[in-house]
Design brief:
elongated; ten-stranded antiparallel beta sheet; 4 helices
């Protein structure tokens, strides 16, 4: 039995529902199920004594749109239900719509009603009844069933949260997309010509791991430009579905869509699991209803993501976060709240300097994407004297680690004295990762000279050298334990004179990153 948590015992409707209203009072909000806690079960429930049946997890999305309010309740329309029952073959898909209300006179209550279609079966009605809320809105946690969990029943527990906008990746169909219908094989009837297909949709990540990526296909808004005896006619196409891409050896992909074409009832289209997907995030795939048997409909989709993907997070970590357009990172992290920020950006074979360890570049993006080494270019503003003596590194490998996260390995460290810029083909052009390196710049003013000796002496005398935020950059000789002392003054003198260094750094001004981006 599920434990009910009353997140809001008393309060106004406006106060409880403000979280969703802040996203737009008339705008549909896409929700995503938590696969770990959302479940689907068919079987017997009390008082019947037959087996209850296994409980499966479910994943997917739906939309919630404000539909008005009264003195007690806030009302919402539920649409584009797009769920998959996990670990069940053949696949079980649930689609449909319904309503949701939340409010109450004293204790907050909620009610979810859904009319769901399982695969191509009949529409069935599910209802939670008016029950206490289990989580703070805009989160939704509620159980619906066909027979109020009485005897033989199907029970679905919904646990969902709004999808962050940055995780909704918009797509648009290219001019190569077409629609065709008619008789293909084994039947003798008209096969109409290809008709242009245009419009937009979006992907929402459901399951991302190193082997494959699964997305919900949402916000389908297409139109078929058909030619009829009465002239050109635009036929609207809406619906939902899923897209899967990946594989352990050969890359494959699969798309399943439940579509409304014009005024026709919902129809299911599929591609089957076929070779392809190597060009993702671009999508090129064909879907049919009947695998070209007799009378069929075909969607030949060619889609590309809108260039809205941005860099969400990157080295350094959270106490010195990446912010587009702000000061580039230094190769050894020189700002922050902790003396543990002794992480450098380097290549796979860049040796550590006592407590300073060089690592790969970690980057997370705002929308689902695929990333390979050839998708990243590296440019450097300075490569030593003579030029090329400290070469600009290249990307040697890219490994996906978390949802939207990648580890990028360089062939070598950031060249000292300048700025290294990483540009991603799948990211808006104005965003780059930029790393600067200037040995001996204790004051971080972009110039290394004897004034840095004075700065370090003053920091030793007033105790600033031992502050956690200053230790990483003032520990010039990278001594164990993060100790800053007169030995660091000696190492700074060596850097100024070019001893045990790539060059003499006295009076050297850092060659900055360009002020303009492509």
């Amino acid at each position: 039995m599920r434990r009910v948590r009353a997140a809001c015992v008393v309060g106004t409707i406006a106060g409880c529902c403000a979280g969703l209203q802040a996203q737009g009072t008339e705008t549909a909000v896409i929700y995503r199920l938590s696969e770990e806690t959302s479940t689907y079960q068919t079987g017997c429930f009390p008082p019947c004594l037959c087996p209850p049946g296994p409980e499966f997890n479910i994943r997917g999305t739906f939309k919630l749109t404000p539909a008005g309010s009264d003195l007690l309740f806030q009302y919402y329309d539920v649409s584009d239900v797009n769920w998959i029952v996990s670990s069940v073959e053949p696949k079980v898909r649930l689609t449909g719509s319904g309503t949701y209300k939340i409010g109450g006179e004293v204790a907050l209550t909620q009610q979810l009603t859904l009319d769901l279609q399982t695969n191509d079966g009949p529409v069935e009605h599910f209802d939670s009844g008016l029950v206490p809320i289990e989580t703070s809105f805009p989160g939704i946690a509620v159980t619906v069933s066909m027979n109020m969990m009485f005897c033989l029943d199907t029970v679905i527990h919904v646990d969902a949260q709004p999808v962050p906008p940055e995780q909704i990746q918009p797509y648009h169909l290219t001019d190569a997309s077409t629609y065709q219908e008619g008789c293909f094989l084994f039947c003798d009837c008209i096969l109409y010509p290809d008709w242009p297909l245009g419009g937009t949709f979006a992907l929402v990540p459901l399951n991302i791991n190193p082997l494959f990526s699964e997305f919900a296909v949402v916000n389908i808004d297409w139109h078929i430009s058909s030619m009829t005896p009465n002239g050109k006619q635009d036929i609207p196409v809406t619906g939902v579905g899923t897209y899967w891409v990946g594989g352990e050896v050969a890359i494959q992909h699969e798309m399943n869509l439940d579509l409304f074409i014009g005024g026709d009832p919902q129809q299911s289209f599929h591609s089957n699991l076929i070779p392809g997907g190597t060009e993702f995030p671009d999508i090129n795939i064909i879907l049919t209803m009947n695998d070209y048997f007799c009378y069929d409909r075909e969607f030949d989709l060619h889609a590309v993501p809108d260039l809205s993907t941005q860099i969400a997070l990157a080295n350094p970590p959270t106490d010195n976060p990446y912010v587009p357009g702000e000061q580039p990172f230094r190769d050894v992290l020189q700002t922050g709240s902790s003396n543990e920020l002794t992480q450098g950006i380097g290549g796979a074979l860049t040796p550590s300097e006592d407590e300073v360890s060089y690592s790969t570049i970690q980057a997370t993006f705002s929308a689902p994407t695929q990333l390979a080494a050839e998708d990243i270019s590296v440019a450097c503003s300075y490569t030593g004297n003579p030029p090329g003596s400290t070469p600009c590194p290249t990307v040697t490998s890219v490994q996906q680690d978390v949802v939207g996260g990648f580890a990028v390995t360089l062939s070598g460290p950031i060249p000292p004295g300048g700025c290294a810029m990483l540009t991603f083909t799948n990211v808006v052009p104005s965003q780059q990762l930029r790393y600067e390196s200037l040995p001996g710049d204790a004051s971080m003013n972009g110039v290394t000279n004897t004034q840095d000796l004075l700065y370090l002496v003053q920091a030793l005398n007033n105790g600033d050298a031992l502050l956690p935020a200053n230790l990483p950059r003032l520990n010039m000789n990278r001594s164990p334990g993060g100790v800053v002392n007169t030995q660091d003054l000696l190492r700074l003198v060596q850097l100024l004179n070019g001893s045990l260094s790539t060059q003499a750094w006295n009076a050297f001004g850092l060659v900055p990153c360009p002020t303009d981006t492509p």
